[in-house]
Structures are given as C-alpha cells and as structure tokens.
Automatic annotation (TrEMBL):
<feature type="domain" description="RNA polymerase sigma-70 region 2">
    <location>
        <begin position="2"/>
        <end position="75"/>
    </location>
</feature>
<feature type="domain" description="RNA polymerase sigma factor 70 region 4 type 2">
    <location>
        <begin position="104"/>
        <end position="154"/>
    </location>
</feature>
<dbReference type="InterPro" id="IPR013324">
    <property type="entry name" value="RNA_pol_sigma_r3/r4-like"/>
</dbReference>
<keyword id="KW-0804">Transcription</keyword>
<dbReference type="InterPro" id="IPR013249">
    <property type="entry name" value="RNA_pol_sigma70_r4_t2"/>
</dbReference>
<dbReference type="InterPro" id="IPR039425">
    <property type="entry name" value="RNA_pol_sigma-70-like"/>
</dbReference>
<comment type="similarity">
    <text>Belongs to the sigma-70 factor family. ECF subfamily.</text>
</comment>
<keyword id="KW-0805">Transcription regulation</keyword>
<dbReference type="Pfam" id="PF04542">
    <property type="entry name" value="Sigma70_r2"/>
</dbReference>
<protein>
    <submittedName>
        <fullName>Sigma-70 family RNA polymerase sigma factor</fullName>
    </submittedName>
</protein>
<dbReference type="InterPro" id="IPR013325">
    <property type="entry name" value="RNA_pol_sigma_r2"/>
</dbReference>
<dbReference type="Pfam" id="PF08281">
    <property type="entry name" value="Sigma70_r4_2"/>
</dbReference>
<dbReference type="InterPro" id="IPR014284">
    <property type="entry name" value="RNA_pol_sigma-70_dom"/>
</dbReference>
<dbReference type="InterPro" id="IPR036388">
    <property type="entry name" value="WH-like_DNA-bd_sf"/>
</dbReference>
<keyword id="KW-0731">Sigma factor</keyword>
<dbReference type="InterPro" id="IPR007627">
    <property type="entry name" value="RNA_pol_sigma70_r2"/>
</dbReference>
Amino acid sequence: MLPDLRAFARFLARDTAAADDLVQEAIVRALRAEAQWDPERGPEGAAGPDPEASLRAWMFRILRNVFLETMRRRGTERRAMEQMPLPDTAPPAAQEARHAVSDLARALAHLPLAQREALILVGAHGLSHEEAAQVCNVPVGTMKARVARARAALARQVGDMPAEAERSDMS
C-alpha cells in the first residue's frame, strides 16, 4: 500500500519530501488508531465486502486528512504556492510521451482541488467511487459528479491542444 500512499501524497503535496512526511504521519496516525479499525466493518462502521479495499480507503482518508490539516495550518503558504507558475520545462522533440505527460500535469493543475483529488483517487489509484467518497467524506453521487466534471474538463483542455496545433499547421 506504501507506493499508492506515496503517489497520492505526491499528488497532494507536489513535493517529494513533503509527501514522504505526509505518508509517515498518516501511518503513525493509523497505528495509533489501530484499535478503531474493524476489518469486518471498515472505518467508522462502513460495511464493505473487501476488508483490504476498505483498509486502503481508510489509509487514503487518513492521508488526506493529514494533508488538509497541514494546509489549514499553512494557509498563507498555500496561497503563495498556488500563485506560483508551474515550471515550464519543454522536453526534447523526440520525447513526445514526456511532453504528453507534462501537458496532462498542467491540465490537472488547472482543475479545482476537489476534482483533481477525485480523478486521482478513482482514475490513477483505482479506488471505486464508493471508496473515494469514503476517503473524501462526501456522498457517492458527489464523488461521481466530481470525477465526471474532471474528466470532461481534461478532455476539453487536452483535447483542444492537438486541434490548435493542427490549425496552426494549416495556416
């Protein structure tokens, strides 16, 4: 589960060292709250057919809560970081895959945090809508809507890029 926790933490924190700190704090909190974990029922009494999937959702939720708590404590720092432009790193022409990933990262950065979070949990980490909703402490319908809106926004952003490139090639 550690690689998935680290990946989600890196997505949230956008900094490897901060992400490692988030994962460490989440694990410490989970170990402290181990007595509250019921493998049959999952976190907070939520019934789930798969205890392992439920444990993943519980750990993701703890990680997310640690992140949100940290962000609340560092409100001023967060606002300053959000205003900083993303580094513009142009990959060599031969590395088109890296360029596509860079485009995707920029498009993801333009999504609201709730939509980015939903898309990463469901799309990248493979959590079900129900598990992701549990992690974010929102209704399942809200999670489904966030994922749908995020996917539509990404399709517009990333989908428009090649079309614009084609138009500029034609002129």
